[in-house]
């Protein structure tokens, strides 16, 4: 290869790098969530473990019949997690108090979702209403989003051979949220465990409740800061790690962990070509400017 | 193979030139494929080889299960679950295969960019090792993806450019094509298509530099993938700021040692395919590669320790996980480093090869640890791979070995393809040249090379006229 052509190629390469990666750098910025995003405040002190929300979700999302009926409390023997057959589950925790604490789990609809930022085909969308929804038509099934979700939420329909998809709570986006209605589980709850509203208002409401009856609540709203904040927020009477929450999560969105690497990408793209062509020039300079690869495998030269 | 037939008193020409030595006729494609044997002889020697029988058994069991994977779905072959989305296919197949295939860009860089022409005899093996490793990593991926037929989606349908995986996908795809081009020169020689080879020679430097760029980025990107899961990977294997660097740097000794391992196996099983240049240089080359690997290992060890120190994770060392971590480092990094240091100094090639094995095992262990064993370390249950998953992994590795061997037997990887040992109608002067050339295989000086180029051009002119 002619050296001149090569250097020209390098220049083009770097230019492409600069253009192509500026978007990435921006995407790695921090996003506080949409101002009017909705959310749900879950007050664990009110939950009695009736599993109505599970039943409502099952019906609304047209999920398959559960193995154990929704009024059977034997499911509390195990700690369950959301799967492709149950987008929300309630678990029971014996915390030493007189009453057990029940906790509902579903997608927390993060402000800056790890599932979204890790997906290489952009199958996830954070809608302006605050829901994190998923497009099964383009999902490749790499399951990177499941690796990335800090709350272990997305489930996968492994048993489907031809159209396996990620299944997780979508805030009843298509059927309800879009029309300004709360999700099915919120509506179904007989104990009014869940309060639907603007996330910003819910944060205020949560802090108010804690202030009004400090004896009832542990002084923290889970989800206010975790991984950049989540749309679903929790109040509890006991420290959150006692009821299965991961309290070691960072307050930064997950994507900031990757920023270091992403910001290095344009550097490599820009610097390497120049660096290595420079080295090539240096290490071959004494060879009289000839294109001096030994055509070693060539037997006796260019054929 | 050749040796086997020789033993039977049946001397056979090995295909290593355009024309047969005996009668000057061109080899047919069939003869090239059958290594110059008749179909009968070929079959005979294949059946004689016990390794082939083992492969036959593996394929008989594995291939139906592979097909079953696409009919019955992932849950039929894996224990992958909602908590452990990645099992053997990615944890062992992809994440282990990719660092072991970094040899292509390294030797490419050394030879083409740094002008280390002494490494050239082994350059092609390194390039081939890179190409096959990447190719089979993608095969593993195809088995693992829920909807493998959508593999091109991130290239053509929907873009998620902020995702690290998006980089991985693009870089692996482009790098695969770079590697195909690099390996193609050997293929063109073998097929006798000089035009294709010439075209690639022209862009070699460009290919090599894009190779360095793409490799740095996606070797690192594979590590960066795990920074999406802080808290899931055990802190000793996780480092938010250095994860990509750990993966990138360990891929350097990984790739170099893989080349040593492959050449060791080849020396045991297919020495008949080596030409003198490769045979006489192999020990020296092995030592050179090991020197590179030692540097890589030393760097890797340093940044690994910096990783632990930076986030102050020393307390974990005293736990069970810490013991496992220490095992990985001792066995896969410190031991080979010590072995290399001693063996290089005393010129003990056998020991170097042993160290190379250890390094390869160490790199694989690191990837499996990160992606599978220490993943979700806080959860009470570990995922044990399904037996069908293991069978598919073994089968795919066997296919890899068979393809590897198939190519090594045929293409000019271990030997130089001879192009001008043909009786041609040419002037006496050129004949003189050709004769002097075949005696001196490796041209020493540039000016000799120029002569060769001239004479070769004349020769090929003469040949086509002929
Ligand atoms: S909880 Fe998990 S699945 Fe839900 S938005 Fe956040 S990262 Fe995505
Ligand atoms: S499994 Fe689907 S949605 Fe999840 S990261 Fe992969 S392509 Fe995106």
From TrEMBL, chain A:
Residues that, per the record, bind [4Fe-4S] cluster 4: 119, 139, 142, 145
Coiled coil: none
Cofactor: binding comment: Binds 4 [4Fe-4S] clusters per subunit.
GO term, biological process aspect, one: cellular respiration
Superkingdom, natural source: Bacteria
Keyword Chaperone: no
Gene Ontology CC annotations of this record: cell envelope
Principal cellular location given in the protein's record: other
Residue span(s) of domain 4Fe-4S ferredoxin-type: 38-67, 130-159
Binding-site positions, [4Fe-4S] cluster 1: 47, 50, 53, 189
GO molecular function: 4 iron, 4 sulfur cluster binding; metal ion binding
Endpoints of the signal sequence: 1-27
Record key words, sorted: 4Fe-4S, Iron, Iron-sulfur, Metal-binding, Repeat, Signal
UniProt binding sites for [4Fe-4S] cluster 2: 57, 169, 172, 185
Pfam families hit by this protein: Fer4_11
SUPFAM superfamilies: 4Fe-4S ferredoxins
Subunit structure: Heterodimer of a large and a small subunit.
Protein name in UniProt: 4Fe-4S dicluster domain-containing protein
Taxonomic source organism: Geoanaerobacter pelophilus
Classification lineage: Bacteria, Pseudomonadati, Thermodesulfobacteriota, Desulfuromonadia, Geobacterales
């Amino acid at each position: 290869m002619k050296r001149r052509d090569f250097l020209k190629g390098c220049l083009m390469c770097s230019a492409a790098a600069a253009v192509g990666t500026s978007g990435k750098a921006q995407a790695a910025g921090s996003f506080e969530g949409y101002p009017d995003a909705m959310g749900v405040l879950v007050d664990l002190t009110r939950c009695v473990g009736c599993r109505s929300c599970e039943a409502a979700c099952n019906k609304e999302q047209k999920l398959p019949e559960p193995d154990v009926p929704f009024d059977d409390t034997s499911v509390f023997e195990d700690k369950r997690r959301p799967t492709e057959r149950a987008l929300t589950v309630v678990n029971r925790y014996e915390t030493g108090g007189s009453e057990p604490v029940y906790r509902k789990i579903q997608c927390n609809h993060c402000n800056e979702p790890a599932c979204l930022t890790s997906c290489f085909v952009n199958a996830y969308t954070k809608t302006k209403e605050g829901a994190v929804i998923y497009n099964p038509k383009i999902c490749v099934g790499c399951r990177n989003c499941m690796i990335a979700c800090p709350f272990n939420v997305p489930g996968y329909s492994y048993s489907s051979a031809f159209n396996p998809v990620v299944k997780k709570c979508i805030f009843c986006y298509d059927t309800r949220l879009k029309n300004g209605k709360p999700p099915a589980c919120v509506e179904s709850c007989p104990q009014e465990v869940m309060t639907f509203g603007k996330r910003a208002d819910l944060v205020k409401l949560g802090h108010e409740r804690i202030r009004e009856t400090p004896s009832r609540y542990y002084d923290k709203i889970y989800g206010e800061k975790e991984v950049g904040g989540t749309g679903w927020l929790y109040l509890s009477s006991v420290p959150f790690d006692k009821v299965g929450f991961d309290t070691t999560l960072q307050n930064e969105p997950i994507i900031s962990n990757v920023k270091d690497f992403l910001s290095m990408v344009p550097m490599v793209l820009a610097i390497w070509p120049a660096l290595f062509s420079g080295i090539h020039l240096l290490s071959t300079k004494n060879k009289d400017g000839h294109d001096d690869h030994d055509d070693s495998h060539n037997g006796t030269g260019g054929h | 193979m050749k040796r086997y037939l020789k033993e039977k008193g049946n001397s056979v020409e090995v295909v290593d030139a355009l024309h047969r030595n005996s009668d000057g006729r061109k080899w047919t494609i069939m003869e090239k494929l059958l290594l110059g044997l008749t179909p009968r002889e070929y079959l005979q020697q294949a059946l004689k080889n016990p390794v082939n029988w083992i492969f036959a058994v593996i394929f008989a069991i594995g291939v139906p299960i592979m097909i079953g994977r696409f009919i019955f779905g992932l849950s039929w072959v894996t224990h992958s679950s909602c908590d452990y989305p990645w099992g053997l296919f990615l944890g062992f197949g992809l994440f282990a295969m990719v660092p072991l295939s970094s040899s292509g860009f390294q030797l490419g860089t050394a030879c083409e960019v740094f002008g280390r022409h002494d490494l050239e005899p082994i350059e092609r093996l390194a390039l081939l090792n890179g190409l096959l490793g990447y190719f089979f990593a993608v095969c593993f991926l195809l088995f693992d993806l829920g909807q493998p037929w959508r593999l091109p989606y991130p290239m053509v349908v929907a873009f998620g450019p902020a995702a690290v995986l998006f980089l991985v996908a693009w870089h692996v795809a482009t790098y695969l094509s770079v590697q195909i081009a690099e390996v193609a020169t050997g293929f063109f020689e073998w097929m006798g298509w000089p035009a294709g080879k010439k075209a690639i020679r022209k862009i070699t430097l460009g290919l090599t530099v894009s190779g360095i760029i793409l490799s740095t980025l996606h070797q690192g990107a594979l590590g960066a993938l795990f920074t999406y899961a802080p808290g899931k990977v055990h802190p000793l294997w996780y480092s938010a700021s250095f994860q990509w660097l750990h993966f990138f740097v360990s891929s350097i000794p990984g790739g170099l040692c893989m080349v040593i391992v492959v050449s060791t196996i080849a020396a045991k099983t297919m020495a008949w395919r080596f030409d003198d240049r490769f045979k006489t240089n192999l020990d020296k080359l092995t030592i050179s590669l090991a020197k590179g690997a030692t540097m890589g290992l030393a760097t890797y060890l340093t940044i690994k320790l910096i990783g632990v120190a930076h986030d102050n994770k020393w307390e974990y060392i005293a736990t069970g996980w810490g013991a496992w971590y220490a095992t990985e480092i001792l066995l896969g990094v410190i031991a080979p480093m010590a072995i290399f240091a001693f063996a290089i100094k005393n010129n003990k090639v056998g020991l170097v090869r042993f160290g190379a094995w250890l390094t390869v095992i160490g790199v694989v262990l690191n990837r499996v640890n990160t992606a599978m064993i220490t993943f979700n370390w806080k959860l009470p249950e570990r995922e044990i791979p399904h037996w069908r998953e293991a069978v598919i992994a073994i089968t795919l590795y066997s296919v890899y070995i068979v393809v590897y061997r198939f190519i090594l037997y045929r293409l000019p990887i271990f030997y130089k393809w001879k192009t001008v040992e043909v009786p041609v109608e040419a002037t006496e002067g050129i004949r003189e040249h050709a004769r002097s050339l075949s005696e001196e295989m490796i041209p020493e000086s540039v000016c000799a090379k120029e002569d060769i180029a001239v004479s070769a051009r004349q020769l090929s002119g003469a040949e086509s006229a002929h």
